[in-house]
# Entry
Amino acid sequence: MKKALIFDLDGTLLDSMDFWDNLGIEYLSGKGVTSIPSCIKEILEPMSLFDAAEYFISEFSLNLPALKICDEINLMIEDKYRYEIGLKDGVLDFLKQHFNHKMCIATATDRSLAEFALKRLGVLEHFDFIITSHDVGNSKQNPDIFLKAAERLGEPVGNCVVIEDAPHALKTAKNAGFYTIGVYEKYFEKDIDLIKKYADQFVYNLSEVRI
# Structure
């Protein structure tokens, strides 16, 4: 019997992936940059925030220190989570219907950002705790975050469900023995076959989940 649910945050509970996908463009546009290459998202994707800041300085002649750019981008991110980012369709009803399950969040996002959004949206109380990649010292390429979440929930892996939108995270959880549910996210459209491969269930909306 599945007694515990381990949720990803961005793209699974929160409708935030478009914001992350367009963050670089939004920042540059706010600085008055008009000639932004069409491949900017692909250029920025593998970069750290500091590397992206240095790229902005060299390619777009921004007259700011890299650390100042990082601070400004971090403030943009915080404002989005504090005031704008909403829940994905079906999330609120799903949480209410599964109140009898233990629930937590396992995310690569900073805990403070998660709490800003979830508290504003009135759903923070549904979760026993939030565990982050920083807490365990590993990304979701490693199962530590899911295993630690199960341990803190007091349930064996076999009693836990991992609900994710990202293919690499679903693969990690599946290989660690978790039951997995893949949630559709436009950002990962190109990876949908891979997501279905590692998901025991694949849904377009959490209202479709059957546990």
The beta strands are 4-7, 102-107, 130-132, 160-164, 179-183, 201-203. Residues 18-83 form one domain. The two ends are 9 Å apart (CA to CA).
